[in-house]
Amino acid sequence: MSHTTQEKPINVFSGWTMLGVTIGVFAAAIALIVYFISMRVMDQPPAWWDISSLIVGILSILLGIFLGNGFFTLQPNEARVLVLFGTYVGSVRKSGFHWTNPFNTKFKTSLRSRNFNTPTLKVNDKTGNPIEIGSVIVWRVSETAQAQFDVESYEEYVEVQSEAALRQLASGYAYDHGEEGETTLRCGLEEVSISLQRAVQDRLTKAGVEVQESRISYLAYAPEIAGVMLKRQQAEAIIAARQKIVQGAVSMVEMALAELEKGKVVQLDDERKANMVSNLLVVLCSESDAQPVVNTGTLYNG
Predict the structure, then answer these.
(1) Is the pTM of this model over 0.85?
(2) Which of 5, 110, 139, 202 has its CB 3.0 to 4.6 Å from that of 149, i.e. a possible disulfide?
(3) Where are the CATH 3.30.479.30 domain residues in the chain?
């Protein structure tokens, strides 16, 4: 069973304080070595403290170099994960100039938001139609210990798992023309984006990654069926337009007959009403301009 590494904060020394200590160590080392050299220049017989000053001076230089390896800086939204001989010590998030045990290994981790654009993937939607889909994922590291220790490479992990989540999501929705009230990829982008963010977050929690936003950035039918689907969309648009036209024409005919009867402009029997309705519908629903016919006879002898 995998073990989740919990991040723990750690306090480190101020870099400025330790810089003063390090400079003091180097100054003392230089003073001791200069003292030893001055004694040799004056041809003074070497005493035990002279030899000791040389040894202490050399050791002080080595100590100063050792202390210098413990300095590090952190910018805003950066962290350092400290490991001592294979054991996780803690994480430092406070920006500034710091010093820690030089034996600690320091892994730098960015806490800034990042964008990942998935490549355009070719998948089958819920109805089996091949589509092409892409997305953009906005993410950041929220748990530094998990990001460093629970996955091999958290950046690569984000890429692979985001693509897997997108494939799974696309296969669960129809591109369009779903059942009544059903959310589709084309018409329900907001809901689909929320579902995508939830799916990606479920996969990336293990890596200590927070998904801040996810959006579908590209959506289209695959080239092999794009032409057929375009014709279907055009036919559906024509049908929808015709339905609107017919509904409007019927409403106008009803209004015309009602106004004629209300104003008693002319009395029409059922046969003449049917003829008038037919003519009005032809005029209102026709794609070409109507060609009027002038009736020079009576209403019933046209």
Answers:
(1) no
(2) 5
(3) 114-221
